[in-house]
Amino acid sequence: MLFADILRLGERKHAKTIRAGAGLMVLETLCAAVPYVALYGALDLVLAGRTDRVGPFLALAGVAVTGLLAQYLFGLYAARLSITGGYALMAGFRVSLAEHISRLPLGVLTRSRVGQLNALISDNVRMIEDMFTHVLGEMTAAVVLPACVAVLLLVVDWRMGLAAIATVPVAWAVLLLSRRRFARLSAQRLAGHDDVAAALLEYIDGMPVLRSCGAEGDKFRTLSEAMHGFRRISSRLEAWGGASVVGFAVILELGFAALLAAGTYLVLGGEVERAAFLMAMVLAQKFYAPMTRAGMLMAEGDYLGRAVDKVKAVMDLAPLPEPAQPARTEGTDVTFDAVTFGYDPGRSVLDDVSVTIPAGKVTALVGPSGAGKTTLVHLTARFHDPDAGAVRLGGVDLCDLGSEQVMAKVAMVLQDVHLFDDTVAANIRLGRPEATDAEVRRAAEVAQCHDFITALPQGYDTRIGEDGARLSGGQKQRLSIARALLKDAPVLLLDEGTASVDVETELAFHRAFARPGAGKTVVMIAHRLSSIVHADQILVMDGGRIVERGSHAGLLAAGGLYADLWRAATCDQDGPAEEPAGASAPAAIDRGA
Ligand SMILES: Nc1ncnc2c1ncn2[C@@H]1O[C@H](COP(=O)(O)OP(=O)(O)OP(=O)(O)O)[C@@H](O)[C@H]1O
Q1: Which residues form the ABC transmembrane type-1 domain (predicted)?
Q2: Ligand 1 close to Cβ of residue 220 (< 6 A)
Q3: pLDDT of amino acid 508
Q4: What average pLDDT does this structure show over 280-309?
Q5: Are 401 and 327 in contact (CB under 8 A)?
Q6: Residue 491, pLDDT score
Q7: What is this structure's pTM?
Q8: What does the pLDDT average to over 227-235?
Q9: What's the confidence (pLDDT) of residue 200?
Q10: Which of 302, 333, 365, 422 is the most buried if burial means most Cβ atoms within 10 Å?
Q11: Cβ of residue 527 lying under 6 Å from some atom of ligand 1
């Protein structure tokens, strides 16, 4: 994506404002040359001895003052237009980027990706914003002014003009040749910046674990290495960029020496007026400095280009295709029809899975860690589309239903609970914004959180801090359960939804919410095998396939993987365990079993 693409992506009127600003900057720069033209005229008069009349001098002074005034006014409006247009354009671009991200498959938004996106939007997009609000104006002046001055020099005397600009092609050739390495170093510096951000986040995030394991030192070394790596690549980039720009400036300045030599020779030979020579010397000051600045800005532009590449990589992530006319369904059974899916090419995580999850029944998923249980749940909510086969709800392919409809039919309690820095009530009400206070309270009661909520300083109106910072893990989990409960969707997906609540709460939750006959199609990944013994159907997964299917009793009797897991969970090594009496078997299965 080039800056032009961002201009195209943004609102037309803002792009127009920026272009108008750039146009005014060109005028501003042209006006900057006017006083020099007037000066040239005055010098000409003086050296020709025509100083007897004040009129011409006054007229030239008027021209110079008008030029300065126009330069000031154009500059003022140019800055105003480019700044307001630039900020407005980039605000729009940020919204487009956020909208694009909101259409990405949910499965793409993993925690590490979210960190990258955050850095991308806050750092890289801000750099591009600087480009439109500040750098563009400077760049315009740095290119237009030397171009105007070069024309003036050629007009004053073409030989001196040629001498002044003789080294320009060589200087630019050197700068352009150094660009490739500069671009490589820029990409490395941006990657180094990401490494530091990721290492810092991991270090701060993992502090409790690191301290408890006494591994702070190791991780600190990793962080410190990332920081020193960033320092090294930054220094290398600056050194290389600095050296190439200094080389560029030196070669340019050789042009001044050539101008001086040529001018002196021509004046001494009587071929050029002294006024013209003096004028060329003055104009030269407005030629080399801005052009050197243009070279520096080009190097900065290359660095910005890499930042733009990173933004482009996100804009290139494909959203899920959505149907033009979404199909409808009233059915709530879920069918996996020969579904194959993998996160990385060539590595299937679900392998030709065909299964029906009946409407209104509780289906439990069990299996060793990495078997694909979470992936199967995510596909049910269309976090991703399968690579092959189809996932259907009520007989309709989720791709034909579209993400919005799928989300409307599904409530989820996932491993990572997310709460917002808002009141308790607002966090629960996210499940169904139009719910009454009584409904919110009822959901909280069923999810066993009413008591702790009423003990909070402002009850349901208590703000819970960023991501529920003022709540315990179990309390957060229960709030997310209340939210899902309030949504009252026909399909309920529970991925370790009760992992951090105590056994009583878990069982109460299952009685109220996920019990057979409650009318919901429930798909749950079991944390405690004891909580799924009454499930209508248990699917046992291993290596991306469903290897067993049946009821608790049937699977125990079959003596396969489920029976092994049950034995491990109940620590009974002497044979298949008996089904626990009701809810009184709190044995937990380690998901890595
Ligand atoms: N976002 C991802 N990118 C790449 N691979 C992934 C991703 N998420 C999961 N996997 C891989 O897919 C496989 C199945 O993971 P999944 O989380 O579905 O298993 P699971 O049975 O739910 O495991 P667990 O019980 O440990 O949560 C694993 O090998 C895992 O490494």
Answers
A1: 20-300
A2: no
A3: 57
A4: 83
A5: yes
A6: 92
A7: 0.68
A8: 90
A9: 82
A10: 365
A11: no
Whether residue 342 has its Cβ less than 6 Å from ligand 1:
no
CATH for the stretch 334-570 = 3.40.50.300
Query: For residue 372, how far is its CA from the centre of ligand 1 (angstroms)?
Result: 6
Ligand 1: nearest atom to the Cα of 367? 21
- Which of 362, 477, 465, 369 has its CA nearest to residue 417? 477
Q: Let me know: does 254 contact 167? Beta carbons within 8 Å.
A: yes
Tell me which of 171 and 318 has the higher pLDDT. Answer: 171
Nearest to 540 by CA among 549, 532, 531: 549
Please tell me if the CB atom of residue 373 comes closer than 6 angstroms to any atom of ligand 1: yes
Q: Domain spans of the chain?
A: 3-315, 334-570
Q: Do domains 3-315 and 334-570 have the same CATH topology?
A: no
- The number of the ligand 1 atom at minimal distance from the alpha carbon of 415 is 27
Ligand 1 binding pocket includes 372 (Cβ within 6 Å): yes
Domain 3-315 class in CATH = mainly alpha
- Given a contact cutoff of 8 angstroms between Cβ atoms, the answer to whether 52 and 87 are in contact is no
On the question of pLDDT at 248 being above 50, the answer is yes
Which of 11-20, 187-196, 435-444, 510-519 has the weakest average pLDDT? 510-519
Nearest residue by C-alpha to atom 28 in ligand 1: 370
353 CB near ligand 1 (under 6 Å):
no
Q: Is the dihedral of CA 173, 177, 180, 181 positive or negative?
A: negative
Tokens of 419: 């709460």
Among protein residues, the one with the nearest Cα to ligand 1's atom 6 is 343
What's the ipTM? 0.97
Measured N-to-C along each axis, helices 179-205 and 216-268 cross at an angle, to the nearest 10 degrees, of 150
Mutate to test the pocket of ligand 1, among 113, 373, 383, 493 (most ligand atoms within 8 A of CB): 373
CA of 375 to the centre of ligand 1 (A): 6
Q: In what order do the strands lie in the sheet with 545-550?
A: 410-413, 491-495, 521-525, 362-366, 537-542, 545-550
